[in-house]
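Consortium newsletter contribution from the modelling node. Members have asked for a concrete example of what our holo predictions look like. Here is one, prepared for the 2-phosphoglycolic acid complex that several groups have been discussing at recent meetings.
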Amino acid sequence: MSLLVANWKMHGSRARVRAFAYAVNDSLARMGAGLEVVFCPPAPYLAAVREALPQNARLGIGAQNCHAEREGAFTGEISAAMLADCGARHVILGHSERRRLGFETCAEARAKAEAAIAAGLRPIICVGESMAEYDARRTGEVLAGQVAHFTGLPAGKYVIAYEPVWAIGAGKTPTLAEISAAHRGIKSTLGSANPVLYGGSVNAGNLREILGLSEVQGALIGGASLEIDGMRALMEIAA
Ligand code: PGA
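And here is the predicted structure:
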C-alpha cells in the first residue's frame, strides 16, 4: 500500500479544490487497491471538499495544522476536534514552513499529535534536517533527536514524513541511499507499524525510484500535486 499526501499549502480556491478532489476520486476508482491518497487543502475548504465527495476509504481529507487544545480563547486557531467535525481524517504537523516561522517545535507537534489522535485524526508528522545539518553530515543525529519526541504515541495511529528542509520546493533531493538510511533510522526508534513517507521536491521524474525503496511507504507532495494532470501521473506511478 502506498500513501500519497497532496499538501496544497496556501494554494487554491473553492472551485479548484473541489475539481481536484473529484478528479482524484475518479482516478482512484480506476486504479488498484494499493493506493491511498490524502488531500490537504487550506482549512476553509475542508468541509466543502468533504461534502462534495462520496465517502471513499482510499481518499482522505487532511488539514495542514491544528491546535493542541480542544477549545478555548485561542483566536485564529482550529482544534483537531473541529477539523474532524468538518470531515478531516488526517492532519500535517510540524511542517518545516511552520517551524521556520516559529509556529511549531517538536514538543508542540507532539502535543498536537496527541490531540489529533484523541480526536480521531491521523497525524502526518514532518521531520527533517536543514541544509547546514545535511552538509555537516548530521542528518542521522538530527532525525534521532526529532523522532525521540514522538516515541510512545500509539503504534499505527500516525505517519512520519521525512522531509529534508533543504529539499522542499528546491528541485533537489537526497540520494536514494540517504533516503533509505534516514527512513531506517526513523523506524529503528519508532518501530515499523507507522508508514514513513518521503517529501521534498517529489515529482513524476523521481517518484518511481523513491517508492522503489522498501523503507518508503509513500510521499508527501507539494508543488507537483497542484495540477490534476500532474497528480494523476504521480498516482499512476504509485499505484
Ligand atoms: P514540495 O513540498 O513537494 O513542493 O517540495 C513538499 C512539502 O512541503 O511538503
